[in-house]
Write a structure and sequence with these properties.
Layout (H helix, E strand, L loop, with lengths): L44 E5 L6 E5 L3 E7 L5 E8 L4 E9 L6 H12 L7 E8 L2 E10 L4 E12 L2 E10 L7 H7 L3 E3 L6 H13 L6 H14 L5 H17 L3 H14 L4 H13 L3 H13 L26 H10 L2
Antiparallel strand pairs: 1-2, 2-10, 3-4, 4-5, 5-9, 6-7, 7-8, 8-9
Helix pairs in contact: 3-4, 4-5, 5-6, 5-7, 6-7, 7-8
Length: 338
Protein backbone atom coordinates (compact mmCIF):
# COMPACT_ATOMS: atom_id res chain seq x y z
CA UNK A 1 0.00 0.00 0.00
CA UNK A 2 1.32 3.41 -0.94
CA UNK A 3 2.94 5.63 1.68
CA UNK A 4 0.97 8.73 2.57
CA UNK A 5 2.64 12.04 1.82
CA UNK A 6 1.23 14.65 4.17
CA UNK A 7 0.64 18.31 3.57
CA UNK A 8 3.75 20.45 3.36
CA UNK A 9 4.57 22.36 6.53
CA UNK A 10 2.07 25.18 6.75
CA UNK A 11 3.77 27.25 9.37
CA UNK A 12 7.13 27.72 7.68
CA UNK A 13 6.77 31.48 7.91
CA UNK A 14 6.46 31.30 11.69
CA UNK A 15 8.17 28.15 12.89
CA UNK A 16 11.37 28.37 14.88
CA UNK A 17 12.95 25.39 16.54
CA UNK A 18 10.92 22.22 17.09
CA UNK A 19 10.59 21.19 20.72
CA UNK A 20 11.13 17.51 21.42
CA UNK A 21 8.61 16.06 23.84
CA UNK A 22 5.62 13.79 24.03
CA UNK A 23 2.08 15.07 23.87
CA UNK A 24 -0.62 14.13 26.37
CA UNK A 25 -3.82 12.89 24.74
CA UNK A 26 -6.76 11.30 26.52
CA UNK A 27 -7.71 7.89 25.17
CA UNK A 28 -10.30 7.96 22.44
CA UNK A 29 -13.13 5.53 23.02
CA UNK A 30 -13.50 3.46 19.84
CA UNK A 31 -16.44 4.53 17.72
CA UNK A 32 -17.68 3.21 14.40
CA UNK A 33 -15.91 5.15 11.64
CA UNK A 34 -18.37 7.22 9.66
CA UNK A 35 -16.66 8.55 6.56
CA UNK A 36 -19.65 10.22 4.94
CA UNK A 37 -18.73 13.83 4.17
CA UNK A 38 -21.12 16.08 6.14
CA UNK A 39 -23.00 18.79 4.26
CA UNK A 40 -24.20 20.72 7.29
CA UNK A 41 -23.12 24.29 8.00
CA UNK A 42 -19.74 24.51 9.75
CA UNK A 43 -19.62 24.86 13.52
CA UNK A 44 -20.06 28.40 14.92
CA UNK A 45 -16.80 28.14 16.89
CA UNK A 46 -13.40 26.64 16.24
CA UNK A 47 -11.25 25.27 19.05
CA UNK A 48 -7.88 23.49 19.20
CA UNK A 49 -5.85 22.10 22.06
CA UNK A 50 -2.44 23.52 22.96
CA UNK A 51 0.57 21.23 22.52
CA UNK A 52 1.56 19.39 25.73
CA UNK A 53 -1.22 21.13 27.68
CA UNK A 54 -4.73 20.40 28.92
CA UNK A 55 -6.15 23.75 27.79
CA UNK A 56 -7.18 25.00 24.39
CA UNK A 57 -7.86 28.07 22.27
CA UNK A 58 -11.23 29.12 20.82
CA UNK A 59 -12.24 31.63 18.17
CA UNK A 60 -15.77 32.43 17.04
CA UNK A 61 -16.93 32.30 13.42
CA UNK A 62 -17.92 29.60 10.98
CA UNK A 63 -14.62 28.44 9.50
CA UNK A 64 -13.78 25.51 7.25
CA UNK A 65 -10.39 24.02 8.05
CA UNK A 66 -8.27 23.65 4.93
CA UNK A 67 -5.10 22.40 6.62
CA UNK A 68 -4.20 21.45 10.16
CA UNK A 69 -1.12 19.74 11.54
CA UNK A 70 0.78 18.80 14.66
CA UNK A 71 4.54 18.83 14.09
CA UNK A 72 6.46 15.52 14.06
CA UNK A 73 7.83 16.36 17.53
CA UNK A 74 4.28 17.14 18.77
CA UNK A 75 5.61 20.51 19.94
CA UNK A 76 3.81 22.75 17.46
CA UNK A 77 0.37 23.15 15.93
CA UNK A 78 -0.56 25.03 12.78
CA UNK A 79 -3.94 25.54 11.16
CA UNK A 80 -5.33 27.28 8.09
CA UNK A 81 -9.07 27.93 7.73
CA UNK A 82 -11.41 30.08 5.68
CA UNK A 83 -14.86 31.62 5.97
CA UNK A 84 -15.91 31.89 2.34
CA UNK A 85 -19.12 33.76 3.04
CA UNK A 86 -17.24 36.60 4.71
CA UNK A 87 -14.00 36.19 2.72
CA UNK A 88 -11.96 35.89 5.90
CA UNK A 89 -8.82 33.77 6.19
CA UNK A 90 -7.63 32.41 9.51
CA UNK A 91 -4.38 30.85 10.66
CA UNK A 92 -3.39 29.69 14.14
CA UNK A 93 0.14 28.78 15.16
CA UNK A 94 1.16 27.46 18.58
CA UNK A 95 4.55 26.42 19.88
CA UNK A 96 6.43 25.93 23.10
CA UNK A 97 7.70 29.43 23.89
CA UNK A 98 11.25 29.77 22.51
CA UNK A 99 12.09 32.06 25.43
CA UNK A 100 10.46 33.63 28.47
CA UNK A 101 8.20 36.58 27.85
CA UNK A 102 4.67 37.96 27.88
CA UNK A 103 2.38 38.55 24.92
CA UNK A 104 4.26 41.70 23.95
CA UNK A 105 7.51 39.76 23.83
CA UNK A 106 5.75 37.14 21.71
CA UNK A 107 4.62 39.87 19.30
CA UNK A 108 8.08 41.40 19.09
CA UNK A 109 9.63 37.98 18.41
CA UNK A 110 7.31 37.11 15.53
CA UNK A 111 7.19 40.60 14.01
CA UNK A 112 10.97 40.60 13.84
CA UNK A 113 10.70 37.74 11.38
CA UNK A 114 8.37 39.71 9.12
CA UNK A 115 11.04 42.35 8.58
CA UNK A 116 12.67 40.15 5.95
CA UNK A 117 9.39 39.48 4.15
CA UNK A 118 9.26 40.55 0.48
CA UNK A 119 5.70 41.77 1.10
CA UNK A 120 5.43 45.49 1.69
CA UNK A 121 3.19 46.52 4.58
CA UNK A 122 1.47 49.85 5.18
CA UNK A 123 -0.19 51.51 8.16
CA UNK A 124 1.34 49.11 10.67
CA UNK A 125 0.07 49.65 14.21
CA UNK A 126 0.25 47.78 17.51
CA UNK A 127 -2.05 47.82 20.52
CA UNK A 128 -3.24 45.62 23.36
CA UNK A 129 -6.58 43.89 23.84
CA UNK A 130 -6.82 42.33 27.27
CA UNK A 131 -4.02 39.77 27.53
CA UNK A 132 -3.41 39.83 23.77
CA UNK A 133 -0.82 41.92 21.95
CA UNK A 134 -2.27 43.04 18.62
CA UNK A 135 -0.56 43.97 15.37
CA UNK A 136 -2.36 45.09 12.23
CA UNK A 137 -1.36 46.30 8.80
CA UNK A 138 -2.52 46.87 5.23
CA UNK A 139 -1.14 45.19 2.11
CA UNK A 140 -1.80 46.93 -1.19
CA UNK A 141 -1.58 45.23 -4.57
CA UNK A 142 -1.55 48.04 -7.12
CA UNK A 143 -1.53 45.68 -10.09
CA UNK A 144 -4.79 44.05 -9.03
CA UNK A 145 -6.13 47.20 -7.34
CA UNK A 146 -6.62 45.27 -4.15
CA UNK A 147 -6.09 46.07 -0.47
CA UNK A 148 -5.89 43.41 2.23
CA UNK A 149 -6.06 43.93 5.98
CA UNK A 150 -4.09 41.68 8.33
CA UNK A 151 -4.62 41.43 12.08
CA UNK A 152 -2.50 39.26 14.38
CA UNK A 153 -3.22 38.52 18.01
CA UNK A 154 -0.23 37.28 20.00
CA UNK A 155 -0.69 35.41 23.25
CA UNK A 156 1.75 34.05 25.81
CA UNK A 157 0.08 31.52 28.09
CA UNK A 158 1.45 28.76 30.28
CA UNK A 159 4.74 28.44 28.39
CA UNK A 160 3.10 28.46 24.95
CA UNK A 161 3.26 31.25 22.37
CA UNK A 162 0.29 31.69 20.05
CA UNK A 163 -0.20 33.67 16.85
CA UNK A 164 -3.80 34.05 15.67
CA UNK A 165 -3.94 35.72 12.26
CA UNK A 166 -7.04 36.87 10.36
CA UNK A 167 -7.14 38.68 7.03
CA UNK A 168 -9.51 39.72 4.27
CA UNK A 169 -9.56 41.69 1.06
CA UNK A 170 -11.28 45.02 1.69
CA UNK A 171 -14.11 46.20 -0.52
CA UNK A 172 -15.15 49.82 -1.09
CA UNK A 173 -15.81 51.49 2.26
CA UNK A 174 -14.76 48.40 4.21
CA UNK A 175 -12.37 49.16 7.07
CA UNK A 176 -12.09 45.54 8.14
CA UNK A 177 -13.71 46.03 11.54
CA UNK A 178 -15.07 42.52 11.27
CA UNK A 179 -11.50 41.26 11.80
CA UNK A 180 -11.28 43.17 15.08
CA UNK A 181 -14.57 41.61 16.15
CA UNK A 182 -13.23 38.14 15.35
CA UNK A 183 -10.06 38.71 17.33
CA UNK A 184 -12.27 39.81 20.21
CA UNK A 185 -13.77 36.30 20.34
CA UNK A 186 -10.39 34.63 20.93
CA UNK A 187 -10.10 33.11 24.37
CA UNK A 188 -8.21 30.49 26.33
CA UNK A 189 -10.29 27.49 27.40
CA UNK A 190 -8.89 26.22 30.70
CA UNK A 191 -11.49 23.45 30.82
CA UNK A 192 -10.88 22.10 27.34
CA UNK A 193 -12.48 18.98 25.95
CA UNK A 194 -10.46 17.15 23.30
CA UNK A 195 -12.04 17.87 19.93
CA UNK A 196 -12.18 16.60 16.37
CA UNK A 197 -9.06 18.44 15.18
CA UNK A 198 -7.04 17.14 18.14
CA UNK A 199 -7.92 13.51 17.40
CA UNK A 200 -7.40 14.02 13.66
CA UNK A 201 -4.06 15.78 13.87
CA UNK A 202 -2.70 13.36 16.47
CA UNK A 203 -3.75 10.42 14.30
CA UNK A 204 -2.03 11.90 11.25
CA UNK A 205 1.10 12.77 13.26
CA UNK A 206 1.33 9.19 14.51
CA UNK A 207 0.77 7.93 10.96
CA UNK A 208 3.68 10.00 9.67
CA UNK A 209 5.88 8.57 12.41
CA UNK A 210 4.90 5.01 11.39
CA UNK A 211 3.34 4.57 14.82
CA UNK A 212 0.13 3.13 13.51
CA UNK A 213 -1.24 1.19 16.47
CA UNK A 214 -3.53 4.01 17.66
CA UNK A 215 -4.09 5.73 14.32
CA UNK A 216 -7.47 4.07 13.62
CA UNK A 217 -8.62 4.91 17.14
CA UNK A 218 -7.87 8.62 16.70
CA UNK A 219 -8.99 9.03 13.09
CA UNK A 220 -12.25 7.11 13.47
CA UNK A 221 -13.08 9.28 16.48
CA UNK A 222 -12.24 12.40 14.48
CA UNK A 223 -14.55 11.40 11.62
CA UNK A 224 -17.36 10.61 14.04
CA UNK A 225 -17.04 14.09 15.60
CA UNK A 226 -16.71 15.69 12.16
CA UNK A 227 -20.04 14.21 11.14
CA UNK A 228 -21.74 15.82 14.14
CA UNK A 229 -20.09 19.23 13.82
CA UNK A 230 -18.36 19.62 10.45
CA UNK A 231 -15.39 21.91 9.95
CA UNK A 232 -13.02 20.11 7.56
CA UNK A 233 -12.50 21.27 4.00
CA UNK A 234 -12.84 18.69 1.25
CA UNK A 235 -9.13 17.91 0.91
CA UNK A 236 -8.59 17.71 4.68
CA UNK A 237 -11.49 15.28 4.91
CA UNK A 238 -10.07 13.22 2.03
CA UNK A 239 -6.70 12.91 3.76
CA UNK A 240 -8.36 11.84 7.01
CA UNK A 241 -10.41 9.09 5.34
CA UNK A 242 -7.47 8.00 3.18
CA UNK A 243 -5.11 7.62 6.14
CA UNK A 244 -7.69 5.81 8.25
CA UNK A 245 -8.15 3.28 5.44
CA UNK A 246 -4.39 2.84 5.01
CA UNK A 247 -3.90 2.42 8.75
CA UNK A 248 -6.49 -0.35 8.74
CA UNK A 249 -4.86 -1.95 5.71
CA UNK A 250 -1.33 -1.85 7.11
CA UNK A 251 -2.54 -3.45 10.35
CA UNK A 252 -4.24 -6.26 8.42
CA UNK A 253 -7.81 -5.12 9.10
CA UNK A 254 -8.87 -5.49 5.48
CA UNK A 255 -12.62 -5.52 6.10
CA UNK A 256 -12.43 -2.15 7.86
CA UNK A 257 -10.07 -0.83 5.21
CA UNK A 258 -12.50 -1.78 2.47
CA UNK A 259 -15.54 -0.39 4.31
CA UNK A 260 -13.77 2.92 4.95
CA UNK A 261 -12.75 3.31 1.30
CA UNK A 262 -16.17 2.31 -0.01
CA UNK A 263 -17.80 4.89 2.27
CA UNK A 264 -15.29 7.45 1.03
CA UNK A 265 -16.07 6.60 -2.60
CA UNK A 266 -19.78 6.87 -1.92
CA UNK A 267 -19.29 10.43 -0.64
CA UNK A 268 -16.55 11.44 -3.12
CA UNK A 269 -16.61 9.05 -6.10
CA UNK A 270 -13.99 10.77 -8.25
CA UNK A 271 -11.13 11.07 -5.75
CA UNK A 272 -8.51 8.73 -7.26
CA UNK A 273 -6.66 7.73 -4.10
CA UNK A 274 -9.74 6.09 -2.62
CA UNK A 275 -9.89 3.85 -5.70
CA UNK A 276 -6.13 3.30 -5.73
CA UNK A 277 -6.05 2.16 -2.11
CA UNK A 278 -9.05 -0.05 -2.75
CA UNK A 279 -7.03 -1.64 -5.56
CA UNK A 280 -4.19 -2.20 -3.07
CA UNK A 281 -6.59 -3.79 -0.63
CA UNK A 282 -7.94 -6.17 -3.29
CA UNK A 283 -4.42 -7.03 -4.46
CA UNK A 284 -3.32 -7.92 -0.95
CA UNK A 285 -6.49 -10.01 -0.58
CA UNK A 286 -5.57 -11.98 -3.75
CA UNK A 287 -8.48 -10.54 -5.76
CA UNK A 288 -6.74 -9.48 -8.97
CA UNK A 289 -9.88 -8.81 -11.02
CA UNK A 290 -11.30 -6.29 -8.55
CA UNK A 291 -7.84 -4.80 -8.03
CA UNK A 292 -7.60 -4.15 -11.77
CA UNK A 293 -11.08 -2.59 -11.89
CA UNK A 294 -10.23 -0.21 -9.03
CA UNK A 295 -6.83 0.61 -10.51
CA UNK A 296 -8.42 1.57 -13.83
CA UNK A 297 -10.93 3.79 -12.02
CA UNK A 298 -8.17 5.45 -10.01
CA UNK A 299 -6.26 6.47 -13.12
CA UNK A 300 -9.46 7.49 -14.88
CA UNK A 301 -9.90 10.15 -12.20
CA UNK A 302 -6.21 10.98 -11.72
CA UNK A 303 -6.78 14.66 -12.54
CA UNK A 304 -9.00 14.94 -9.45
CA UNK A 305 -6.20 14.34 -6.95
CA UNK A 306 -5.35 16.97 -4.36
CA UNK A 307 -3.22 19.81 -5.69
CA UNK A 308 0.44 18.92 -5.30
CA UNK A 309 -0.34 15.25 -4.76
CA UNK A 310 1.41 12.75 -7.06
CA UNK A 311 -0.35 9.75 -8.47
CA UNK A 312 1.15 6.55 -7.00
CA UNK A 313 3.03 4.20 -9.31
CA UNK A 314 1.75 0.62 -8.96
CA UNK A 315 5.05 -0.69 -10.38
CA UNK A 316 6.77 0.46 -7.21
CA UNK A 317 4.01 -0.56 -4.80
CA UNK A 318 4.55 -3.68 -2.71
CA UNK A 319 0.82 -4.42 -2.85
CA UNK A 320 1.16 -5.37 -6.53
CA UNK A 321 4.62 -6.97 -6.43
CA UNK A 322 3.30 -10.51 -6.80
CA UNK A 323 1.45 -9.58 -10.00
CA UNK A 324 4.34 -7.99 -11.89
CA UNK A 325 4.82 -11.07 -14.05
CA UNK A 326 1.08 -11.57 -14.64
CA UNK A 327 0.23 -10.85 -18.27
CA UNK A 328 -3.21 -9.45 -17.47
CA UNK A 329 -1.75 -7.07 -14.90
CA UNK A 330 1.08 -6.01 -17.19
CA UNK A 331 -1.49 -5.16 -19.86
CA UNK A 332 -3.37 -2.96 -17.40
CA UNK A 333 -0.17 -1.14 -16.42
CA UNK A 334 0.43 -0.38 -20.08
CA UNK A 335 -3.18 0.74 -20.49
CA UNK A 336 -3.03 3.23 -17.62
CA UNK A 337 0.38 4.50 -18.69
CA UNK A 338 2.30 3.29 -15.67
Amino acid sequence: MRKWIGFAAIAFFMAGRLAVAEVEMPPAKPTPASTEKPTLAPAAKLAVGAPHKKWGLEIGGRFIVERSEISPSFGERALLAVNDKKNVNLSIFMEQAPKEGDSKACREFYLSRLKNSPIKFESETTREMGEMAISERLIRDAARKMTMKDVNAYISHDGVWIDVHVSKVLGPGDEGKELDNLIGTVKILDKYQTGMLDYRDMGLALFRRNNGQRVPEFLSKALELEKKSPMLGKDSWRVTVDCLAMAYGMSGQMDKCRATLEDGIKADPTYPNFHYNLACMYAESNDLDHAIDSLRTAFKYKENRIKGEKMPDPRNDSSFAKYMSDEKFKAVLKEIGS
